[in-house]
Amino acid sequence: MPTSGLSPSRTAVEIASQPESWRKAAETLPRHRAALPVRGERVAVVGCGTSWFIAQAYAQLRESGGHGETDAFAASEFPLGRRYDRILAITRSGTTTEVLDLLNRVKGTVATGALTADPETPVMAAADAVAVLDFADEESVVQTRFATTALALLRAHLEAEDALPAGVRTVERAAKDAERAIAEPLAAEITGAEQYTFLGTGWTYGLALEAGLKMREAAGAWTEAYPAMEYRHGPISITAPGRVAWSFGPVPTGLADDVDRVGGTLVAESGDADDHLDPMADLIRAQRLAVLLAEVQGQDPDRPRNLTRSVVLTTDGAERA
Fold first, then answer.
1. Nearest-angstrom CA–CA distance, 120 and 141
2. How far apart are alpha carbons 306 and 183 in whole angstroms?
């Protein structure tokens, strides 16, 4: 991942640890059940930044798997007038202001759960039950391991409840795919591109959003993300030689020809479907690319500009370091 002669960044090390972390999430599922939705509940999943995109991916997985109606919101945009059986918050730091404000506001009126990496933070008191994934915590500002491990836990829960949508792989299979995604070199047409449009369908749209965010955070890259079928409705105008359209999951019929027609590079799994990377494992390739591009530009992927590990706001809305 790093450029020649450099020691791996902390982010690169955390990226490489994901297969083990996903397996541990599945193994520790029984101790976390109190925080997780019950089959049939109407659930809202909330988060900020990366956690919001993971919430979107999980909401699609849960509802399409028949586990219950599920919506995802940025915590700051939660519709307080809408009724849910449970609110599930995702917050790596356990200190995110918008998440804590929401949990405290609804406390006692709806069941709440949270996924976090730090058991010594305010979210422990704000939520009714908390799943602590401290083994997936990170030192780097940019989230990689915690986000995917949270989604691995949620996938494992659906798997255990026989509510994993058709065609979505087990966590163990995803972890094996992740090992491939870590080991295989990134193609030159990917590492040398000037722009990236990430695409997804259903639950993988959340992964596309997260891939775009990761590239912007770590490397300041020009990235966009859309539902795959929306690509023809404007985003294709950006694609050109030296630019990438990257699809997580199946590619809609005709899209490959459209990318080729405008001279772009399509990144998508092809050939035998059994050999395709799990989309969550494919996200690792985008994470690796973000680190590589940052290092090539002389930037620190562990501490990107203008970002802090957690957004904690003062009463006037300003960010407190």
1. 18
2. 31
Cα gap 120→158, rounded to integer Å: 28
- State the pTM of this model: 0.93
Helix (H, G, I), strand (E, B) or coil at 54: helix
Instruction: Give dist(CA 220, CA 216) in Å, integer.
Output: 4
H, E, C per residue of 97-138 = HHHHHHHHHHCCCCEEEEEECCCCCCHHHHCCEEEECHHHCC
Q: What is the DSSP letter of 77?
A: G
Both tokens of residue 228?
């795959």
Residue 5: its pLDDT value, please?
A: 45
What is the predicted pLDDT for the residue at 225?
Answer: 98
- The pair of structure tokens assigned to 268 is 């998508």
pLDDT in the model for residue 167: 94
In tens, the pLDDT along 47-85 reads 999 999 999 999 999 999 999 999 999 999 999 999 999
301 confidence band (pLDDT: 50, 70, 90): confident
Residue 68: which residues within 8 A CB-CB, separation 6 or more? Answer: 37, 38, 39, 40, 41, 42, 43, 62
Q: Count the neighbouring beta carbons within 10 Å of the beta carbon of residue 228.
A: 24
Query: How far apart, in whole angstroms, are the C-alpha atoms of residue 208 and residue 280?
Result: 10
In 3-state terms, the chain is what percent helix, strand and coil (to 5)? 45, 15, 40
What domains can you pick out in the chain, each with its CATH number? 10-168 (3.40.50.10490), 178-296 (3.40.50.10490)
CB atoms within 10 A of CB 185: 8
